[in-house]
Design brief:
The protein has 202 residues and is α+β, with helices and mostly antiparallel strands. It has 3 domains: 59 residues, Beta Barrel (OB fold (Dihydrolipoamide Acetyltransferase, E2P)), CATH 2.40.50.140; 72 residues, DNA polymerase, domain 1, CATH 1.10.150; 55 residues, Helicase, Ruva Protein, domain 3, CATH 1.10.8. The chain has a 5-stranded mixed β-barrel. Belongs to the RuvA family.
């Protein structure tokens, strides 16, 4: 199994990152390849899940081991394939998804593409209790997960601002839209980026 790749990031597409290692280009499918935008043409380490089936071998890439572990756990749920698992990891943090599973929040889970009530219930059945260690490490308390959600909001906001900077927007422009982005409680990094772009184009 290929546990991770450590090489030069030579290209990004909408679906993948291309890593050059000793003259060999490895295509790694990522939920949001542009998370690695700041490391283009530089050395980068991407944690990988080597998915093998009879007709294909695919490398899925993640920013850290927690995302990779969550992807693998979701993949074990009946009715969820790699595309669905990758979509979940790309649109929710590990802590956010873990809280939803532990609190049996079907409304949150059914927001992901291809996840209906039946699949949401299956995820809760298969994963509840198995993700508790992740929740504990991120500061989940007995107050409805408020501490975790605030941490997630702050992280998503910071990542969105960094992504917009990488796209060429100036500090002054981003400062102006900052308060409006912070009002978007619970929005994912990708959602905040899209919201930010819409505001900047007005």
């Amino acid at each position: 199994m290929i546990n991770y790749l450590n090489g030069r990031l030579v290209e990004l597409t909408e679906m993948s990152a291309i890593i050059d290692i000793a003259g060999v280009g490895y295509e790694v499918i990522c939920a949001n390849p542009f998370h690695f935008q700041n490391q283009l043409d530089e050395k980068v380490k991407i944690h990988t899940f080597h998915y093998v089936r009879e007709d294909a071998q695919v490398l899925y890439g993640f920013r850290n081991q927690d995302e990779k572990q969550l992807f693998a756990q979701i993949l074990n749920v009946s009715g969820i394939g790699p595309k669905g698992a990758l979509s979940i990891v790309g649109n929710a943090s590990v802590a956010q998804f873990s809280v939803a599973i532990e609190e049996e929040d079907e409304r949150f889970l059914t927001q992901f593409p291809g996840v209906g009530k039946k699949t949401a219930r299956q995820m809760i059945l298969d994963l509840k209790g198995k993700l508790a260690v992740v929740v504990t490490q991120t500061g989940h308390s007995d107050h409805g997960g408020e501490a975790v959600i605030k941490q997630i909001d702050d992280q998503s906001y910071t990542e969105a601002i960094e992504a917009l900077k990488a796209l060429g927007y100036k500090e002054k422009e981003l400062t102006a839209i900052g308060p409006m982005l912070r009002q978007e409680q619970g929005m994912t990094t990708d959602g905040l980026i899209r919201k930010g772009l819409a505001l900047l184009m007005q």
